[in-house]
Amino acid sequence: MILEELAFLVLALVAIATAIAALLVRELVHTILWIAVFFVDLSAIYFLLEAPFLGVLQLGVYAGAVTVLLLFGIMVTRKRIFSREAATGIGAVPFALAVVTFIFIVSVVGEFPSSAGTIHAYSPADLSQNLFNVNGPWLLLLGLIMLGAVAGAIYLVREGRE
Amino acid sequence: MDLGSFAGPFLPEILLLAGTLFIFLLDVVGVRSTERVGAVAVAVTGLALLFVIADLGFAPLAFLATIPAGQIDAAGTGSALYAFTSLGLIFQAVFLLATFLVSLASLSRPSQDRGAPIFFGLLVLATLGMLLVAIASDLVFLLLAIEVTSLATYLLVGYTRKDPRSLEAAMKMYVIGALSTTLSFFGASLLYGAYGTTNLAAIAHVGGAGGVPVLVLLGYGFLIVGLAFKATLVPFHAWAVDVYDGAPTDVTAFLAGGSKKVGIFAFFLVFLAPILFVRTGTGSPFANGAIALGPILQITLGVLAVLTMTVGNILALLQKEMKRMLAYSSISQAGYMLIGIAVGTAPALAGATLQIFAHVFMKGAAFLLVAGVTAWGIGPLIDDYRGLGTRRPVVGVAFALMLLSLAGVPLTIGFVSKFVLFSAAVQAQGYFVWLAVAGLLNSALSVFYYARVLRVMFFEEPAAEKFPAGAIVGGSGPSELPAGGFGYGRAAAIAIAVIAIVAVGIYPQPVLGAIQAAAQHFVAVGA
Amino acid sequence: MTDLPLVGFIGLSAALLAIGLFGILTRRNFILLLIAIEIAMNATILNFVYFAAYTGGTAGLTGQSIAVVLVGFAATEVAVGLAIVLALNRLKGTINVAQATELKL
Q: Is C37's CB within 8 Å of B154's CB?
């Protein structure tokens, strides 16, 4: 299955490149463009992993909602944060920390069979069975998180009239 | 399964959810006065507290019990996601107590405060998240429940939206919180990848007695770092002082008295099973090319505990501001609590739990008192408290009792908890004795900065007349936005705390007995 | 049925986590901080998805469920962060974290 491996390699490289680019470009609007590509790219990886439901979710929530949300945030605060503040250099210590984290995690790769493994596909029907039935409490907790977030966020950004 | 028998055990949680929704509804229909909204929060948390105490087997309230007796401390019943343990119920009681005191004291905030519904609503919602943490038996359930609390707390810290300090504190807490969440979930994903499950007991047991793969070690490592941020352990503590300092002081009381304990209890839940399990496994740490987890975890947590105690205490010594001093002291207290899980025996867990219980009354109430005193116009510096003890003896003595209890003076609850904790560490033998020694040395160190406050309060004359002529009730100052008075609610909350400090300090047996029994069950189920 | 080596995926998610951590530690603009957090969060979600894909069976479904929940959670987290930053922006006219306070770890 050389074709899939090639596809994964390309997608992975694009993901890493866009993630780095998003954090390093000077213009904040370009950052949003790069991060949008990053989200779409990850969604493609999910399709490659035969998780179509997550792929669609990634497209809708991340590439759609989160990107627009971030863009909106930039628009509202634009006058104040125009370009320059966004670009800063690369500090030695955080860079070293990032590299160490990477090496540290990759070093445990030896634990895994490096040969190809079979990827299991799941039907969205089975997934929803699992999501709403056995693991329903997780969704309830997510609902509680969103309840607090909505109430608090509306209060914070609402114009006070006092 | 009918609804009653399914929903019954969750009555406290349902009550809090209903309370949150009701408070938000009051906001929509325009009822925004602090007293009315706060009364709902006080009532809901108080009622839920009664239910939890009844479930703990407190005989006079037995008619309120909602959980069938067979479901508590029984492994393998019900869902794999949650389980009722008596230690978890004790933590529920601690969390509810903290919220009860904070919302009672917050009744004294100015009644025209438009943010009151959001303040109390998020407070109750954050408490609901804590209650769910206390019944978690699944890693993802636990982390999501922590997030319910966290997101509500970020917004609580920033809820005085006209005060830049408070919003900055919220922003800082948000960034650190998001970082810690990501690291925790990353750790959880590695554990899931290793074993294909996120049930805490299953993760701990599935590796067999021989050892665990490196992947699991890495997963637990990420979890330690992620949860250490939440529990304000050194070296992941630096955010906490600025946040405690910048947040509205009533919220600080909630952070110190309640939400930080969530991190500590998460340590109990996540790490007890692997520590207990591997201890009965093979002796060699590196058997079969895999690693015995227990000793490594215990040494790591022990080192974190000693670091947290020592650094927290030394930095507290150097502080000039009251809130920052209390914040650093709160960090060092987290170190004492961590000893419980580092030792990992039932008595040690009981000691740590009692310490957490005591901390609500000592530190939580101390912050509530500072909030009230600040509203009199007393500044943030420790030196600003000059003469408080002579001019306002009642408040001064209450504050002194809290500080003495924090220092661990006999006849206070702080002495009992430290005694139980350190003696448990000594009983555990081995290098755990050094944890007890470090704890004792740190207690001695902490006496210095508590004594300094006492000296300033009682033996130094105020530079100028700072205390306005009014009675204890009423009064407001410009230094904190929005100013809160020292009203009846705050006085009641502080009175409850003082009574608890002295009463449990003199006659600890009922509370201590319940906690020790719960810790025994917890260890028995976890092993 | 596809065959892909697991090594590649763990390398990718490790790299993304490292990039995200680096961004969280260095960026001073709050929007960039949010993006860095999202990159790290995506690494976590990717972890769950590929472990689920290799695990199979009910255990695999659990992993995908976690991933679905985490996508929703991460979006909520961004919304809260933006709310805080908009309120601060209105008050102080900056969303620069360094100007607000010195971020220490």
A: no
